[in-house]
Structure formats: C-alpha cells, structure tokens
## 1
Amino acid sequence: MHNPKLVQRLHRIDIPTHFIWGASDGLVTVDYGRAFCSKIRNATMDVIEHAGHSPHIEQPERFLDCVLKLLR
C-alpha cells in the first residue's frame, strides 16, 4: 500500500486534480492527503466531516456535493 517514490512523482500530474478525504480516516490521515495535494500544481482538496476512509459510502450526499462543485 505504501510507495515511497510516489510523492516524488506527483509534480508530474498536469490535469485538474481534486482530493476528497474523510476527516476521520483511520488509515491515512488528512495531513497525509494535504501533503500529497500540495505536490500537485493547482490541486484542491475537500475534507468530509463524519467520514473515515470511505467518504463516498459514509457520506454519499456530501461526497456528491464535492464532485459536483468540481465539475462546475
């Protein structure tokens, strides 16, 4: 699950990128997500409260709001 070289490669991404993270993710912290987000030019991030590692399942309406906001 861990790729130590990934963070060094993220700067190569040149398409719109948006992270959607669960605030209570017990596997991968929000700070970890923010660190990845900061390595991608113009990337954005939403953090969904009351969601863990699967925000799309735990908070599907909020998750959809984040996706629709990005698509607008």
Note: Strands lie at 18-22, 44-48.
## 2
Amino acid sequence: AYTPTITAGTGTFTTVSATGKYYIFGKTCILNMIVDITAAGTATGFMSATLPFTSAGRIQIGGYGMEVNVTGSMLKGYIPASSTALQVTTYTNATTIGSGFSNILTVVYEIA
C-alpha cells in the first residue's frame, strides 16, 4: 500500500485524499488508486498523482480509469519520461477535477 500525493495542473485542492495499492512483477508495477476530491478549491486542469516508483526512461500511457460519482467520464493516465508522477485527464482531455469527484485508476508501467 502507499498514499499518492495529489496535485492539480493549476491551483490547489481544498480537500483531497488518495489511497493506492501496488504489486511488482520483475520491472513491472501494477497499481490501483482511488482519489476522492471532497472540495476542489481553485484546482483545475489535469490531476497529478505520485507513483510508488520512478518510471523507466520512456514516455508511457500507463493508466486507465473512471470518475464514478459525478460525471462517469473515462480517464487516461500519462507518465512523462523518467517521472515519478501520473498525469490524469479524461479521454477528451477535459479536467477530472471537481468537488465530489471520485477517480478510480489502474496503472501499469515499467519501473526504472
């Protein structure tokens, strides 16, 4: 288990919490993450969540999920090269940040 740190592309959250569990198979990390946004505050844009391990040196599309409380939007996660964070948006590149949103993600990526 681990607790991801959640930040926004712009602004800050008033109240956000996250939990995660991961499994390691060789150099592959598989993790499940739940991010609950109680109060979005001034947060907008993409949501960023820290990973338990730095990704390998290549750009990766690593996560897929759904916002389950408000919009039902499908989510995608992008891991920049050699990063320790996952950037999350919807498939239409809209924000996945809003008060009352609950984002559930599954992420698979190669660790460094």
Note: The mean pLDDT is 93.
## 3
Amino acid sequence: SMVNSAEQIVPQNTQLVQVHPIPGSLILDIAYGTPQNFTGQVIYTNPHCFIHQVAFDKLMRAVELTRAAGFQIKLFDAFRPQEAQEKLWSICPDPRYVADPAKGSLHSRGIAVDLTLTDAQGNDLDMGTPFDDFTDQSHQGCATISQEAQRNRFILNGIMQMAGFTTIQYEWWHFNGEDPSLYPLLKDQDAPLPMMG
C-alpha cells in the first residue's frame, strides 16, 4: 500500500547535506546565526546550512536559473532544528509566520528554504519588505507593493517554481521543496554538525 512505501522511504530522508556559498551565485546570510532577525537573538550559535539532498538538487537548479538571469540567490535559512523552531514559537506564536512546533515547520524537516535575489554584485533586490517582515505586505500576491518589488517577486517565484519549489501564502521568501509527509521532524543532533551549540 501507499502507506507502507512511504514508511520505507522515511529512514533515508534523515540525510542532510551541507550547503556552501558559491562565489557569484549563492550567498549564505544565515539570519538566525546573527541577532539580525525578528527575535533580535542569535538562535544558531554554529550557523551551518543544511538541507535534504532532494531539495539541495532543486536549490542548485534554482541557482543555475538565477545566474542565467544575471542575479544571485541569497539564502537566509534552510534546515532549522526543532529546538530552534520551539524558540521562535516562544517569541512569535503566530501560526501565519511561525509554524507551531507541535505540527513542525517544513524547515525542521529539512525541505524548505528562505531566500531572496540579489543583483550580480550581491545587493538585495527590492521585494517590498525585508525577510521575516510579518505584515500583509509580505503575503504572496500583495498588490500594494511597488511595481519594481512586484516584478522582482514574480522573477523569484518563477525561478523557484521552475526549479520545483512551491510558494506559501504569507511569506514571499519561503519555498517548500518536497512532500512534508515523507520527511520527519529533525533535531539539532540529526544535523551533520551541531547548529545550536
């Protein structure tokens, strides 16, 4: 049955791979490794970046498409340990913007990314709001942002969807890579290297 095949898939889905910067193509700006995030706190004391191999392959496809369009990807977050999700939830228990740890974030399953586009020099494109700006202006399809920001979001969405990611309603920067039912929630100890120290 489908259920059994899904259960057989799960054990291999705990393998996270490390994401490294690619000069001129992929910038890592791990927001929770600094106080420059909505909590004002350092969440990852060791801000490595990990993701499942299947989502990594899609991310590399997105990098290739982005480079072909003359831009770079700036990645803010990928795998987020369950412990980090609990910390974020304690600070912002709003399910529109932070997944309830009881249900689990797709970040904690290692299959989601938070990112934006930069120009070739690494300057952020105008997306209408900053990353992790929990307002209506951050919602997909918000028509009240500037024309430039609207166009930039369409470019970002087009690239990410072409690479196999899906969008979510409330955050222009968040993209899901895989079916969450096949990927268990992972803790810091499941990462190849500790992130939370």
Note: Confidence is low (pLDDT under 50) at residues 4-11.
